Amino acid sequence: MKKNDVVLGGGILAIALVLFLVMHLTRNEAGNQIQITVDGVVYGTYSLEKNQVIEVKEDDFYNRIRIQDGSAYMEEANCPDGYCEEQGKINGRTQTIVCLPHKLVVEVLDVNGLEDDNAVEDMPDTISK
After folding, report:
1. Where are the transmembrane segments (predicted)?
2. Which of 35, 61, 88, 104 is surrounded by the most beta carbons within 10 Å?
C-alpha cells in the first residue's frame, strides 16, 4: 500500500463523515414553535424555547400539553383511550400529537412558523403496506 493510497482513503472517509453530519443535521431540523388546533381552529401558537404548560379546556374535555427543554408532549388528557399521552415528545418539523376523541392536534412549525408548500405537497398523505 502506497502513501498516496492512505491519504486518498483518509480524504474519502473525511468527506463521507462531513456529508453524513450535514444530512443528519438537516433531516432532524427542529422547529421553534408548536401550534395547537381544536376541530380545525387554531387554539394557539407557543414557543418551544420557553418551558410552560398549556391547558386546553373545551366543554367536557381536557388536555394538558407541557413544553419542556425544547420538546412538547401531552402530559394529561381525559379522553377514553389515552393514546395521545403515549405519543411521546415532539420537536421536529413533521412531528405531531393527535387526540382524536377531542379533535386536537399539536404540530411543530418550521423555523419561520410557516409550512413550506412544496415540502407539504411532496409528503405522502397515507402510508400503507
Report:
1. 6-25
2. 104
* Residue 16 falls inside a structural domain: yes
Q: Are residues 9 and 66 in the same domain?
A: no
Q: Are residues 24 and 77 in the same domain?
A: no
pLDDT tens track, the chain, 129 positions: 688 888 888 889 889 888 887 776 654 445 689 999 999 999 999 999 999 999 999 888 999 999 999 999 999 999 999 899 999 999 887 899 999 999 999 999 875 544 444 455 566 667 776
Residue pair 48/66 in contact (Cβ under 8 Å)? The answer is no
The CATH number of residue 76's host domain is 2.60.320.10
Looking at the structure of the chain, the number of domains it has is 2
